[in-house]
Amino acid sequence: MLLGYSRLSKRGRLAARWIAGLAVAAVGAALTHWFSFDLAFGLIFLTGNAFGVLAVFILPWPVNIFGTVLTMLPTIALWGHPWSLPPYLLEGLMLGILLRRGHFDKILVAESLYWLFLGVPLTFLLYASFFGMPADGAVAAAIKQGANALVNAFLGVALYFAGRRIPLFASPSQRRQSGRENLVFLLDGLLIVPLGVILLFYMSNIHQITVKNITARTSYAMSMASESLAENSFTILQTVLKEQGYSALVLDPSGATIWSYRPGYFEQSDATSRLLGIRGTTIILGSAHQSNPMRVWMNAVVRTRKDLPDGKAIFLEQPFGPYVEDFYRSITAIFAFFLLMLTMAGIAAYAAAAVFLRPLELLRRTAESVQTGERAAKWPEKGIQEIRELRDSLVAMTGAVMTKEMELGEAKAAAESMLRRSERYTAFIAHEVKAPLSAILSAIEAGGESPESRAGLLPMIGTSLQRLVELVDGLLDQATAASGAAELRHRKPFALAKEAEDTLAPFAIQARRKGLSFTSTLDPSLARTVVGDPLQFRQVLANLVSNALKYTDSGFVRVALDAREAEGTCLVRGSVADSGRGIESTLLDDMWKPFAAGKGRLADGQSSHGLGLSVVRRIVEGSGGSIGVESAEARGSTFSFELRFDGTAEAPAGGVPAAGPRPVIARAAIVPDLRPVSVLVADDDLLSRMASVHFLQKWGGRIDEAEDGAEALRLAERKAYDLVLLDEHMPGANGLEVARRLRRMEGEKGRARSHILLSSAESAERFQPSVPDLIDAVAVKPLRAETLGRLLAARFPASADTL
Amino acid sequence: MRDRAHRAGYCECGAAHRIVLVMHRGERPDSDSIHLDFADLRAEYGDEDFIADILRVFTLDCPSAMERLDLALSAGDVAEAGRAAHSLRNILGVLRCAPALKLVEEIAAGLRAGDLQSLPGPAARLRGAIEVLVAEGKRFPCS
Fold this sequence. Notes:
The complex is a heterodimer.
Chain A: H1 10-34, E1 37-40, E2 43-45, H2 49-58, H3 67-72, H4 75-79, H5 85-100, H6 107-129, H7 135-163, H8 172-175, H9 179-230, H10 234-244, E3 247-251, E4 257-261, E5 273-279, E6 282-287, H11 293-298, E7 301-307, E8 313-319, H12 321-371, H13 385-449, H14 454-482, H15 484-489, E9 492-495, H16 496-514, E10 517-522, E11 529-532, H17 534-550, E12 556-566, E13 569-578, H18 612-622, E14 626-632, E15 636-649, E16 678-682, H19 686-698, E17 702-706, H20 709-718, E18 723-727, H21 735-749, E19 754-759, H22 761-770, E20 777-780, H23 785-795
Parallel strand pairs in A: 10-12, 16-17, 16-18, 18-19, 19-20
Antiparallel strand pairs in A: 1-2, 3-4, 3-8, 5-6, 6-7, 7-8, 9-11, 11-15, 12-13, 13-15, 14-15
Chain B: E1 3-10, E2 16-23, H1 38-45, H2 48-75, H3 78-94, H4 98-113, H5 120-139
Antiparallel strand pairs in B: 1-2
């Protein structure tokens, strides 16, 4: 049944607990009735109540409050009264409530306090009032009862602890045994068990000693009485008996009474008496009709007999009650001491456990407060070494958790901010796209309704398309500037002066058309080759100059550039000054953010997406440089920047070219313009080569093909190519080897090529950072038009007329 | 549960030929699921003549490369098998046939690991796939 308990239904488990609890209570009752033992003169130590306490644990609530009473029922028969039961009923009630509320660790201390302050006084009152027991006996009995109950409570808890792992013994919540319960039980046991043993031995001995003393005293009185009788001095005998408090009876050999003194004392015959003790010729007799053992002893007599040589017999008898009452009086203090010690043991055990476990309790509370987000709780400062180490570990762990929490909070705030920006960004893009699209749609509809007006609508469509293209260009530039990987892909040597001159030339024409003075001052120090992304250099310059022209209605736009070496890098410094309308002070901080610049500065009919300055700032700061602006409203602005490039080379022949008018270059999104570009495609695989050539021809390139590396080198010897596509794996010289030898040729002939390596996906990442000097970009095979187009568009932007 | 992806392509002959790429989630694609995706080829290369050109080359070069791979595998020549797998990767890459490319990658991985014992299965599936692809390529433009 015990093994199958966990498989029982809820009702089955309840029934099982009923049966087991009542069985335990019955065992306790049996022990109370048959296996209790007399401590001294009717003070009986009851063993059964330990099982009564156990029954409280096992029986279901609220029946369990009767567990102790059930085991004490036999005392009605044993002691002839029911007045011992109410304190046990209250004890069961208290235990039941404590268990129901889960205060297992407080059971022993509660028992101590209960019996000291309630159980013992209540027992005394009941015994003295309802049972009519003399006060001395009632006090002794009550205190004994309390001490007895405390020992039994400990034994009951011990039985429960021993069996609590058995499912039947306790509910699942009760089976969780805390360290505090164990510690209280251990400390209480260490104090109670020795005290209980001492009490038992002491009581047993004092009983024997008392009996021995009284019989010795009676023997002495008998010797005096027999001597007086031998001298026929009845007068003396009577005096002695009176002084000693004895009755006397002298019988002749036939049994007839010769002489007596207070013979009424000899009322207890053998038939109505029971023998309580015997020592030599002295016996202690109690009434057979008394059921209460204490009353038996209090009403007992001590009787002794001596046979004289002449055949006569002398009997002496004395009431035993006064001796017992004396004993009860003297033993009351001892019992009280033991009860107090047992109570103190319970309290001390609980207090010691509380003190010992206090740091752990504090740790638990602090950990809980951290978990719930409170910060008021403090970590314990005292405790044993292990607890201090545990505290330090928890403090460190909590610190780490809080740091992570803060980081997560910041990350969450940043993500939310980014999400809000993204939403605004999306809304802005949608708005910017919708306006020109609506204009185009309207124009088309108008053209459908009125064919003759179609020619007049074309400029409007063109303007709207141009605006869309500018928006896409800006977005692409921003995406490129935001991508660190893009910088590496576009790195290559380029001539600073030439790039600057090519970039500024179209703006000179634009300025002249607007009636502005346009001055570009290119310092001779620009006559050098640097390694970096020329596209980004052009973007910085073009965006700043474009803005200056856009926001200047009259006056000038001045551009100045120089370069110098700094810490192994080339620092390009530039300024773009205008005499335009300037920037409002409220816009100075926000204008670097996407879509923020330009608001409130544009004249009617002008448009701006506000992307240029954010792109410029990303590029400049990404290179390790800086950018700033000085502006005054209605007086103009001056943007100053520093761009960093790696390594410098000697200046090419020809010095700094003068800025002059050149065709305006507009970049396409993906489609490159290869019309003036000569391309060499080296790939041993015919199909791959066909695909590459197909794409390149479509974009206008002049293509030569090579089936292997050797042929590629031969062709490159004879002709200067702007772009070379090299397959990684070719018979003979592979792609990298060919690239190396082509670079060497470039050094000799002074013409730079773009090298694109065609590679497998797993090799692409390996080549990218390892051979930047040989390879400008890596294209993953199988080659896609979009991939190759995007790569080439960065180097060979589509001209305006291709859009 | 089967996860089907359908892509439809239409031939100039007027007949609607559905080109179906069937993938079984969590399973290796088999030769039955491998087809040429002409719609994808048109989107990528645009020019029908060019597609016809590369298909002509494909129908010649791909079986040849497969034969080289078979011979190399049967002879245990890992280096030659690797070169043949590289050629197949290029050829099938241009034809943009991902399931077949996956088989080639599986074979290439086995070659790199030196595990020739595991290759006959993938090679047989690849051979079957190439036969399907070549047959389809020969039917172009009425595919």
